[in-house]
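User:
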Amino acid sequence: MSAPTDSRPKEFYDEFQEATKDMKFTKDFNGSLETVMHDEMATTGQRVLAWIKRRSWGNYRLFCVMDDGVTPALQRDCCAELGIDKTRLSHTISYLVKRGYIRYEDKLLIPVISPVLRGPGKERAASAEFQAFFEQWQVANSVDAEELKVARVTLKRIRIVGHSGYKKSRASETNCGPSLVEIQKTPSKADPSPDGGAPVQSSSTEDSSVAVKPKAESSRKATTTKTNPKASGEPAVEVPAGGYASDRDELVALMKATLNRMPDKKAVRTITEALEIRGGTLREYLDDIKPRLERLRNPAREGFFIKHAQMWGGEGTTPAPAPETAESKEKRTGPCAECRGLGRVGDKYCDCPMGVDLQRVESRATNGQKPHATTT
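Assistant: Predicted structure:
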């Protein structure tokens, strides 16, 4: 090791040399540690431990310091440099301390030169006891155990899809215009209602009572047409002559007309992510929910839209199978009327599925020889 520069106090350097003079070591260069620190594909534990080594041993110190070699580097500095959430970092530091990789004294992060892994002790004994019980439980409850296994696989897949959807939404937000929250914060006196009538919000009681009435007077516009009309006063959606730019814009307009205000940005994102997880599309969702809104006695709220998306593909959104007559079921499942389930009519094969299967089996049995009967 080279001698310290002037910015590194001599006593800290001597203390480091004294503590490591009899230790064997392998050079782990600072560039290698910094690469692990900023590798977002590495685990949080790997990144934090690399940061602690770089800030301590990389500066010839027994504890983490800043670039000046004197000021201690604390957890908040690690959060700022690595971009890790403080809660996750706190859990990681606790894990490294429990396992014996580092020590945490007076807010100082101190890597252990010769770490000795600490066993879980009672926790492992309790875990082994539960594992033995769980194995017996799986044998005694095989059906439930199989459902648990399938549920774990499904949960893992949904988490992966959810994280992927979140990343896509974050990427798309950078190219969007003003957020729905910003639009909603516009002064209420200047905002007309969704259909162009009186303002939705007003300081007087009389104005607010007018805002919830059906506005049929302002519905006569040359460039827009009304859909989803309802005698009970359910808000209708204004569809521009050229249509909406995307299905998401149509969803926002539908929710705005139903809620009498702009929907929250989080609610729209929750709906789109739920549909992606459930394997549906916004177009299918819109076509399905519009007639349901007409059947509601009271106006729907945001929870109705979100729950409908979260239950997409289930019994609530899947139509019942078409009715089947007794005659069609008999033809589908019963024996053939011509061959009565034998597969042959005289010396010929029947055209029913039984006859086709019988011909195939007998052809294999004769190794390609001429079958006993011919097809009709």
